[in-house]
Amino acid sequence: MDTGNIISFLKKFSFGRLIGSGILLRVVIAIVDGIFGLEINELTNFNFYIFGLALAYTVLWMFNKSYSEED
Predict the structure, then answer these.
(1) How many CB atoms lie within 10 A of CB 63?
(2) Which residues, at least 6 apart from 70, have a Cβ–Cβ distance to it below 8 Å?
(3) What residue numbers bound the domain in which 49 lies?
(4) Could you give the CA distance from residue 8 to residue 3 in angstroms, rounded to a whole number?
(5) DSSP 4
(6) 37 φ, ψ to 5°?
(7) Residue 66: left if φ>0, alpha if ψ -120 to 50, beta else—which one?
(8) What total of structural domains would you count in the chain?
(9) pLDDT, position 10
(10) What residue intervals traverse the membrane (predicted)?
(11) What is the rounded CA–CA span in Å between residue 19 and residue 34?
C-alpha cells in the first residue's frame, strides 16, 4: 500500500462515526440484554467485540460513501 493511500484513508476516516456507532451498539445491546436477559455484556472481551463491530461499520460506510461520490 502506498503512503499516499494511507494518508488519504486517514483523511476520510470519521472518528466521530466510530465513537457514535460504538455508543449506539452498546445502547442497543443493553436494551436487548435487558429484555431477553442474555447477559451479553458479561462476555469475555466484550468491549473488543463492540470496537470491532463499530470499526467495521465505519470503514464499510467510508468505502460505500467514496464509491457513491464517484458516480
Answers:
(1) 12
(2) none
(3) 3-70
(4) 9
(5) H
(6) 60, 40
(7) alpha
(8) 1
(9) 77
(10) 18-40, 46-63
(11) 22
